[in-house]
Design goal:
Among the domains are: 40-174, Rossmann fold (3-Layer(aba) Sandwich); 196-348, NAD(P)-binding Rossmann-like Domain (Rossmann fold, 3-Layer(aba) Sandwich), CATH 3.40.50. The chain contains 14 helices and twelve strands. The strands form two sheets. A seven-stranded mixed beta sheet has the order 9-8-7-6-10-11-12, with helices on both faces. Strands 1-2-4-3-5 form a five-stranded mixed beta sheet. It is 45% helix and 16% strand. Helix 1 packs across helix 14 and helix 6 packs across helix 12 (351-365). It is an alpha/beta fold. The longest helix is centred in the last third of the chain and has 26 residues, at 371-396. The chain starts with 11 loop residues before the first helix and ends with a helix. Bound molecules: NADP nicotinamide-adenine-dinucleotide phosphate (NAP). The site of NADP nicotinamide-adenine-dinucleotide phosphate (NAP) has 27 residues, from helix 7.
Length: 423
């Protein structure tokens, strides 16, 4: 099968994930058999679930997925996304990126991802709970603390993880906190997990600023997305003295040249749910916001935001990817040509899975760590991966995404060759 024949995986995100992988594999001279094997996920499960809305007469059929990309190095790990665009190809792309991310961070996991094709913002709390419990039941044979450990992603949060943990625990007959990460601290969740992706991204923005000679206290940032990753990234950047001139969510972009107060925006969103109507800045479209001038542009919402169409018009010095897959291959080429520094997703947003790994370790050992221990270990792992990526990029004259991916792919390939082929 060739990469152009994607069959049931066909989706723009999976095409992007495969194209990025093939580019890196070609440059590093990856063994052809290993390359062919890593091009596809090892296991996938497609489920349909009956979902009863609060109005008792309505029963809808909803599609759900769980994909495990590589099972070679240990259990698989990856978030669960609730969004209307979720399909097998999208989840498979996210699972593949998780493999490179875990390997780059030197975590003992392969990549996985899950998703339910539903708009979570339209659901009541009871509906969200029902869909989560039924989805968990449908994929229960695939997950487990030694098999595959889910976590939050777009549209899911620690409450959803608590319901998942409860459903699994009810089935086996005792509490199994280590089946899922990103759950509430009272259920064995880790301190620092909720904000870990944003915190990790900001640690790397600091490293990148040192590398590029940017004084963060004199710089500006635009953050696309004001959910978990975006709001925490904006908050930690603001704490470093960065002026946040633009933020957005799905409803609107907000622009204020003098700087937005992130705590005021968080208060507004707590009360109004969306940014639209917030008087702290001028409303601009999401597309326009990306093209406004700033030092750091942090896409922290959706895939496919920086494309061949708009990359030429970006006015930033650095793209710091909190989201998965926000930049297309065509855009990558333009950003490289223009000398815009890219903190690629597999590196930039790896803080989430790194603290998820800490959570799993704490749960399996029944030994909880302090927040200082967690943040300092996170800092060590992230900056080490950053250094290895920069050294490789400079030595082999590569763009940062390719360098980061090769760091990850090399580790996975070594593990596959060491285990050998069965039968
Ligand atoms: P989230 O909490 O659900 O937040 C998503 C944010 O993006 C929301 O503010 C949403 O707006 C906004 N958004 C959605 N579609 C948009 C669009 N078309 N234009 C602009 N904004 C849009 O999700 P999250 O956990 O922060 O995840 C965001 C990204 O980070 C995803 O790509 C995810 O895969 C990646 N990521 C997350 C983690 C993690 O630990 N959570 C870890 C690694 C990577 P509304 O609130 O108005 O809908």
């Amino acid at each position: 099968m060739t990469p152009t024949d994607l069959r049931e995986f066909d989706d723009p995100m999976f095409r992007l994930a495969q194209a990025q992988f093939l580019k890196a594999a070609g440059i590093m001279g990856l063994d052809e058999n290993i390359c062919e094997r890593l091009l596809w996920p090892q296991r996938t499960m497609v489920v349909t679930l009956p979902f009863r809305q609060d109005d008792y007469h309505e029963v809808e059929t909803v599609f759900g997925y769980r994909v495990q990309h590589v099972l070679t190095m240990g259990p698989t790990k990856g978030g669960i996304r609730y969004h209307e665009s979720v399909n097998l190809g999208e989840v498979s792309a996210l699972a593949m990126w998780m493999t490179w991310k875990c390997a780059l961070m030197q975590l003992p996991f392969g990549g996985a991802k899950g998703g339910v094709c539903i708009d979570p913002t339209s659901l009541s709390r009871a509906e969200l709970q029902r869909v989560t419990r039924r989805y968990t039941m449908e994929i229960i044979s695939m997950i487990g603390p030694d098999k595959d450990i889910p976590a939050p992603d777009m549209g899911t949060n620690e409450q959803v993880m608590a319901w998942l943990m409860d459903t699994y625990s009810q089935q086996v007959g005792y509490a199994v906190p280590e089946v899922v990460t990103g759950k509430p601290v009272v259920l064995g969740g880790s301190l620092g997990r909720t904000e870990a992706t944003g915190r990790g991204l900001v640690y790397l923005i600091q490293e990148s600023a040192k590398h590029l000679g940017i004084d963060l206290s004199q710089s500006t940032a635009i953050v696309q997305g004001f959910g978990n990753v975006g709001s925490n990234t904006a908050r930690f950047l603001e704490e470093l003295g960065v002026r946040i001139v633009g933020v957005s969510d799905v409803s609107t972009g907000l622009w204020n040249e003098n700087g937005l107060s992130i705590s005021s925006l968080l208060d507004w969103v707590r009360n109004h749910k969306i940014l639209k109507g917030c008087p702290s800045g001028d409303e601009v479209s999401n597309a326009e916001l990306l093209e406004r001038p700033c030092d750091i542009l942090a896409p922290c919402a959706m895939q496919n935001q920086i494309t061949g169409e708009n990359a030429q018009r970006l006015q930033c010095r650095m793209v710091a990817e909190g989201a998965n897959g926000p930049t297309t291959l065509e855009a990558d080429a333009i950003l490289n040509e223009r000398g815009i520094f890219v903190l690629p997703d597999v590196l930039g947003n790896a803080g989430g899975v790194t603290v998820s790994y800490f959570e799993w370790v704490q749960d399996t050992q029944n030994y909880m760590w302090t927040l200082d221990e967690i943040n300092s270990r996170l800092h060590g792992i992230m900056t080490n991966a950053f250094r290895r990526t920069i050294i490789r990029a400079e030595r082999d004259k590569l763009d940062t995404r390719t360098a980061a991916m090769i760091e990850g792919i090399e580790r996975v390939a070594q593990a596959k060759l060491s285990r050998g082929l069965f039968p």
